[in-house]
Amino acid sequence: MGQNGAGVNLETSLGYLLKEASNALRVAMEEVLRPLGMSVTHYSCLELLAQRPGLSNSELARGAFVTRQSMNVLLQALERDGYVTRPAEAPIGKALPARLTPRGRRSLEKATAAVRAVELRMLAGMTETQQSDASRLLKSMIDSLHSSDEAT
Amino acid sequence: MGQNGAGVNLETSLGYLLKEASNALRVAMEEVLRPLGMSVTHYSCLELLAQRPGLSNSELARGAFVTRQSMNVLLQALERDGYVTRPAEAPIGKALPARLTPRGRRSLEKATAAVRAVELRMLAGMTETQQSDASRLLKSMIDSLHSSDEAT
DNA sequence: CAATCTATGTCAGAATACTGACATGGGTCA
DNA sequence: TGACCCATGTCAGTATTCTGACATAGATTG
User: Which of A19, A121, A141 has its CB closest to that of B145?
Assistant: First the structure.
């Protein structure tokens, strides 16, 4: 049915290809994170905190591409389970800087290794030049998409 | 807080960049589809049917990167509202070939134009050569990620 | 031919993310 | 200074998607 493989227009669409690649990456990440009892958003939050300690809930949300409400639910769970700590009062404004606990750092280790392996697998067959080409092209697309949002 | 812009490692990760680009595209599509009362999955389903009439529920699900259960919910709503038709009985197997109604085709028109405009905006600033480069690189990543799934 | 395997459609419940709303802290500016 | 605007944290309800499960149709295989 639907003679699959007969690309009509979707195969030539960079937008569709982008979604396909992103989906393949997400599926691959879920696959390796599931045995560790971790979702992609869960991992993203921990990785962000490892690389930029003190990020606030809203900043983590933007970094993980979810709403701050969703991230808040996750952060509260992570705090309750001892992976993350936040001060009771904000040092400035209302933003509460979050930090990984030793336990959080420990739980992140295996996940980071697993995700790095996935990324390496994705990059297999690409030269360093091609990788930086891809990086530049993706950044161009991101910039173009963002530029007209501001023009409100 | 978190001195944004100080890329530590995420900015150099192609995986993160891929997710960022895909997210920017999704947000931009939601923006133009919302006035039309259409979600991205909703649009994807209609566009797939326009380009490949007769696709089954499961095939549409794979094409839109959701589960067949999710697509089934959507398809039932689309059928109820007269955008899509499916035969009462499967001509072969259990797969029910879906087709757009004239109403479905009509509702897709504006959406297609809007989405095409978004994609053109995304591609602004890229030469044709760069676009085919991007296409090739994305396909390489997709292939690499899929290849080891089969090795189960 | 019978058993097994794979793919499909569908129902039900759980998990996840989102929209809406409110109060608060801080910066802007007239 | 006071009014306004923006960002943040958080609560509540809604929506969407996913996981689990079951029955069925066709293909495969012994």
Answer: A121
Domain locations in chain B? 14-145
Instruction: Tell me the CB-side half-sphere exposure of residue A2, using CA atoms within 13 A.
Output: 24
pLDDT higher than 60, residue B2: no
Q: Which fold has domain A13-147?
A: Arc Repressor Mutant, subunit A (1.10.10)
Q: Is the dihedral of CA A22, B111, B82, B77 positive or negative?
A: positive
Q: Is the CB of B76 under 7 A from strand C?
A: yes
Q: Please name the member of A14, A27, A47 whose beta carbon is closest to the beta carbon of B131.
A: A14
CB within 8 Å: B142 and A19: no
CA A59 to C1' D5 (Å) is 20
The SS3 of residue B5 is: coil
Distances (CA, A) of B88 to A61, B96, B98: 45, 8, 11
In CATH, what class is B14-145? mainly alpha
> pLDDT for B73-129, tens place per residue?
999 999 999 999 999 887 889 999 999 999 999 999 999 999 999 999 999 999 999
- As given in the structure block, the two tokens for residue B122 are 């995304």
Neighbours of B10 (CB within 10 A): 17
Residues of chain B with C-beta less than 8 angstroms from the C-beta of A95: 1
Distance (Å, whole) CA B35 – CA A150: 19
Helix (H, G, I), strand (E, B) or coil at B101: coil
A51-104: per-residue pLDDT in tens? Answer: 999 999 999 999 999 999 999 999 999 999 999 999 998 888 999 999 999 999
Q: What is the ipTM of this complex?
A: 0.92
